[in-house]
Every structure is written in C-alpha cells, then in structure tokens.
Automatic annotation (TrEMBL):
<protein>
    <recommendedName>
        <fullName>Small, acid-soluble spore protein H</fullName>
    </recommendedName>
</protein>
<dbReference type="GO" id="GO:0042601">
    <property type="term" value="C:endospore-forming forespore"/>
</dbReference>
<dbReference type="InterPro" id="IPR012610">
    <property type="entry name" value="SASP_SspH"/>
</dbReference>
<dbReference type="GO" id="GO:0030436">
    <property type="term" value="P:asexual sporulation"/>
</dbReference>
<comment type="similarity">
    <text>Belongs to the SspH family.</text>
</comment>
<dbReference type="Pfam" id="PF08141">
    <property type="entry name" value="SspH"/>
</dbReference>
<keyword id="KW-0749">Sporulation</keyword>
<dbReference type="GO" id="GO:0030435">
    <property type="term" value="P:sporulation resulting in formation of a cellular spore"/>
</dbReference>
C-alpha cells in the first residue's frame, strides 16, 4: 500500500477493510521515519504492532 493511501484511510470517517498478510487490521498511525504503520488486528485490539506498508492490502469500504 502507498503511504498516501494509508494516511487517507487513517484520516477517513468510514471504516476501510485492510489486511496485513491476510489478517484484518486497523491502521493507527504512519511512522514517517521508517515508512511503517502501527496497526492492530481487529480481533486483538490490544496487540499493536509495527508493519511494513508493502504488507497491507485494501479490500474496499465496509
């Protein structure tokens, strides 16, 4: 996923379905220093992780 699209999803008012290697995730913030994104799985919202933008895939709006 491109950084600009990830930022649009983060700032958007609607929920956009995004997956990280097949797992649905919520995008929290972009880490500008290393082009990664802080995400958490939708089924484990207390399990934040930092992932590469390349591993994210947008499914479309819910």
């Amino acid at each position: 996923m491109k950084r600009d699209r990830a930022q649009e999803i983060i700032e958007g008012i609607t929920m956009t379905n995004v997956q990280y290697h097949g797992f649905p995730v919520y995008l929290k913030k972009i880490n500008e220093d290393n082009e990664t994104v802080t995400v958490f799985p939708l089924d484990e919202m207390d399990h934040e992780q930092e992932v590469d933008l390349d591993g994210l895939l947008e499914d479309g709006p819910s």
